[in-house]
Amino acid sequence: MERACLVDEVAVSDSHRIFVHWTSHGTQLQAPHTPPAAAHRPALAAAAATAAAAPASSAPSHHNSQTQGVDIITFNHDRSRILEVNVYRQLTYDERRGVAAQLCPGPLEIRLATLHREPMA
Fold it and tell me: Model pTM?
């Protein structure tokens, strides 16, 4: 995968927490693969096999995806080490397409209903 990540903004909440807003661009050029380390861990291997079998991620998309997110970094009281990093991000185009396929597997049908009808004179 070819990717780039840009930091858009950094904000300080208090003396122990910062927020980093970022934007990431990437192009999936190869099919996902199972990392070699996952072979030694059965749970990771099973999760990787399930992810590789998913139709939305089984083939390269060859298009540029953009996603944005926020990292919340929490430090200890003297700010000498990081205690916690929470990452929140929006779904990529491929992930949104996969979720849409799971929620609505068939073609989307929209029906309009008559809310009010004036009698013709």
Answer: 0.52
Neighbours of 27 (CB within 10 A): 14
The share of the chain scoring above pLDDT 70, in percent, equals 65
N- to C-terminal Cα distance for the chain? 66
Q: Which one, of 68, 69, 83, lies nearest residue 17 by Cα?
A: 83
Q: Give the separation between CA 88 and CA 50, rounded to whole angstroms.
A: 23
| Total count of residues recorded for the chain | 121
| Strand 82-89 to 2-14 pairing | unpaired
* Among candidate residues 11, 14, 22, 20, the one with its CA nearest the CA of residue 79: 14
- Please state which of the four CATH numbers 1.10.132, 3.10.450, 3.10.350, 2.40.160 is assigned to the domain occupying 2-103: 3.10.450
